[in-house]
Task: structure prediction
Amino acid sequence: MPAPNSPTEAFASLLTEEGRHLLAELRDHDPSQELATATRLRREHPAELVSAALGQARLRQRAVAKFGAEDAYRMFFTPNGVEQSTRKTVAEYRASRFAALGVRSVADLCCGIGGDALALARAGVRVLAVDRDPLTCAVAQANAEALGLADLIEVRCADVTEVDTSSYDAVFVDPARRGGRGRIFDPEAYSPPLSWAVRAALAAPRAALKIAPGIPHEAIPDEAEAEWISDGGDVKEAVLWFGTTPGTHRATLLPSAATLPGRGLPDPAVRPVGRYLYEPDGAVIRAHLVAEVAEDLAGGLIDETIAYVTSDELRPTPYATPYEITDVLPFNLKHLKKLMREREIGVAVIKKRGSAVEPEDLRKKLKLEGANSCTILLTRAAGAPTMLLGRPARA
Result:
């Protein structure tokens, strides 16, 4: 039995009729008015329940960005669960890949609050969801029930290293990548370590391991396909797939699900800045696939150390954002201020890559005024600090 007033007991109180009523009442509450709200609610409800409900209401509001309002306000969360769980769009994409591979059952190891398990179940996959933390397991079970997926999800509180997964079509492992001091960058310091996860993957017909997108490429096993995933332009994670195409690196962009496999190309040549500049998606850069984008665009790099592709023609691509360049200038603050005044630039999108100048510091110094707009890219071209002026282009 959980200790009195333990986190697990406090969470259980939210599943009572009184707890659910409180959560429904708090759906749209204003956090800035929390003290007044708590004082009012404690006149009719136990203080511990009010505290737990307010905490859960805050977590649900935070979770909307990851799970959408429809799911977030029915689900339950822990602080770590909101922070570390997979974004719904990414989990749905991964579940679709598993389903396309013919997977009908998955052992979800280190399941957390169940974000991936829910997506898998919605794809028709039977899931064993395992975590060693009792509170986390209670939350995962509550989420399966809240979304009507409990028939497809079995939640088990256990050490994942001791679970027999031999009866499942696939294994999914999401090791903890945060510790008491924040993010963990050494894959062997994950919990469980990457080496254990790889062994578990190799023992299964199919497997996927969720890892940090900054993993060194030399740490990727030869038997794995490595996929970097971005959502709305933000890199969210990397995944090592087993039982698919070993040695392949790919970048996948959501929500379109456009995917770019590597072709083993050499680094692109450096060339002068042309009429168009392309900024590759972060997943493309992490996957080391800038060369593939450059080849598709008939372009080259502006600098051997900078992931900007330039070309003289505008071609459509989902893997990079194009800009039409009007000016290629050595970096000079005085000259830039003069140009902004002359062109009556009041709105500027300032981007940087390979520059020590901070965009917000530059914005303050420019003191922009006027009815026109432009894009300023602070970078290096052929080794020299450079400022590129232009505008977004549409292919």
User: Anything to note?
Assistant: The first helix runs from residue 7 to 14. The mean pLDDT is 94. The longest strand covers residues 320-330. The radius of gyration is 25 Å.
